[in-house]
Amino acid sequence: MSPNPTTLNAERGTSKGGAQPDATDAVGSTVEWATKFAHYLQRSAERLGETAELNKELTKRIAYGDVPPVIVESQLAAFLATNAESYAAEVADLTMNVLTRLIGLSSDYVCALVQGIAPDSSSPARPTPPRFDPTDPVDWFERLNQYAAAEASVAKTILRSVVDREPAGNLGTEPFSIAAAKTADTFLELLTRLEDINTDYGRRYLTSVLGLTRDSEKAEATLQAVAPLGQTATMRFAISNNSDADATVRCLLTDLRRSDGVGPAFEPDATLMPNNFRLPVGAEEFIQLSVRLAESDFEDGPVYTGGVRVLGVGDAVVEIPLNVRASTSADRRQSVAEMP
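RESULT FIELD:
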C-alpha cells in the first residue's frame, strides 16, 4: 500500500533537521485538498439530486391538482413550528464548535512552527475544548474564554521554550502549509455539515407535504356551515386521540369549489384554531373553523364543498367533509358541526 501523502511529506520535511520541503510537498498537499473538495462537490450534487426528485414529484402533483397550493403553504408553517427549534439547535451546535476549533488552530500553528525550529522539543498538554451547550450558552461562553486563555498560555509556553534557540536548518513553509490545510479542512467541514442539515430538513418538509396527498379516510361526520353573504361562518368540532401514542396533530383546510362543478376551486379566507398541537393518548381538543363568505368567492345559494384534513393521529390521514353555503335569508341557520 502506498504511504499517505500527508505523512510522507511530513517525514520529508523533518528528516534532515527541518530542511526546506521540496516541490513534491506542495504538490501532495494540493492533490489531497483537490480530492477532498471533489468529494464535497460529488456529495453536494448527490444531495441536491435527492431534493430535486422530491421537488419534481411535488410540482407534478400540484399540476395534476392532487396538492392544493394552500396545503403547501400551511404545511410549511406547521413544519416550521415543529422543527424550528431543533434546526436552530443543530446549526448553533455546528457553528459554535467550529469557532472552538478555530481558537485551537492558533496553537496548532505554533506547535508546527516550533517543530520546525526544534524537532526534538516536546509540547505541553493542550486544554480540552468546551462542547457547546444550547441550554446554557452563557456558561459555555465563559468556558470558551477560559479555553482560549489556556490555549494562549500553551502557545506562550511553547514559544518561550525555543526563544533562544537557533532553527535547525531552514524552517521553510511547512508550518504555514499545515495551518492553512487545517483551516481549510475546518471550513470545508462547516460547509458540508450545513448542507447536510439544510438538505435533511428540506427533504423532511417535502416528504411531509407529499404524505398529505396519499389517500385519506373520509370521516362519517360532515361539517355544515351557513352564514349571510359577506359575513363569517364559524363552527367547532372535536378531535380525539384514540391511538396508543401521543400525537402531534395538524389540521389543514382544502380548497373549496361549488358542488355543481361550476367555476374553479379556490382557497377560502379561513382560519383553523388551533391547527398544530400536541394531543396525548385519550385526550380531546376542540377546533374552531372560521370561513369568511366573501362576495368575490361565494354566491348566494350554491353549496361549496371541501374538507378539513387531520394528520398525526395514527398512520391515516382523515378528511372531514365540509359544506359551506352563503345565504341572505333572514332566518339564518347557525353553523353546526354534525359530529356524533
